[in-house]
Design goal:
With 227 residues, the chain is an alpha+beta fold. The chain contains five helices and 17 strands. Helices cover 15% and strands 32% of the residues. The site of manganese (II) ion (MN) has 6 residues, from loops. Manganese (II) ion binds next to loops.
Length: 227
């Protein structure tokens, strides 16, 4: 295939202990998947979680210095477990869903909260609040062949050494199998798709100069900063 303009570079994530990288196709995110976060945001806890998307080239990696984004005065962190798929399909049975998982990582669903809230009030799409340059920091993946499929473990995020977010994977409303099965009703999932699985309570505003460190027990850590 030849193109009329230069083809873009494939976004990718490193894999711990492996020289080859994981090519990222699409980024899916789960909204409202931890009860305490639904409560802190004042949302209806009886409503099921749902999905939204970011673009693959919004990924940044370990050590990234992330520019404070345009248009916002309330730029917030949401630490999340990342699930990376090696295969996919439509209408996936939850019983087989984990067979599609290549591995797991730690990510942050960076959010322009004021713009997200404004679009919610106006019943407009969430893109302006969720989908912007550098909005998806992700650390190295750990293959499921090494670590299995983590269903418990602390998920946490510190800003300048102070703990802001803390939860446990046991608190996920939809577990990983359910997330994959539900999302595959909406789109045909494929190899390279990654899913950010929702954030625990404690989301808060960031400012230039902040140093973020986050992690999930049994999966890994991720450090980035805001400039
Ligand atoms: Mn999120």
């Amino acid at each position: 295939m030849s193109y009329v303009i230069p083809a873009h570079t494939m976004p990718s994530l490193p894999v711990a202990g492996e020289s080859k990288s994981f090519p990222v196709r699409r980024i899916w995110c789960v909204g409202r998947n931890y009860l305490e976060h639904i409560r802190e945001m004042g949302n209806d806890e009886r409503q099921p979680p749902f999905f939204f998307a970011k673009h693959a080239d919004m990924i940044v990696g370990e050590g990234a210095e992330i520019p404070y984004p345009s248009l916002t005065k309330d730029f917030q962190h949401e630490v999340e477990m990342v699930v990376a798929l090696k295969s996919g399909g439509a209408n996936i049975d939850p019983k087989n869903a984990l067979d599609h998982v290549y591995g797991y990582g730690v990510g942050i669903d960076l959010t322009r909260r004021d713009l997200q809230m404004a679009s919610r009030k106006k019943e407009q799409p969430w893109e302006i609040g969720k989908s912007f340059d550098f909005s998806a920091p992700c650390g190295a993946l750990r293959p499921a062949s090494e670590i299995g499929h983590p269903a418990k473990g602390k998920i946490w995020l510190n800003v300048n050494g102070v703990e802001k977010q803390k939860g446990d994977l046991t608190e996920l409303i939809w577990n990983v199998s359910e997330i994959i099965a539900k999302l595959s009703l909406q789109v045909t999932l494929g190899a390279g798709d990654i899913i950010l699985t929702g954030t625990p309570a404690g989301v808060a505003a960031l400012k230039p100069g902040d140093r973020i460190e986050c992690g999930i027990d049994g999966i890994g850590t991720l450090k980035v900063s805001i400039k």
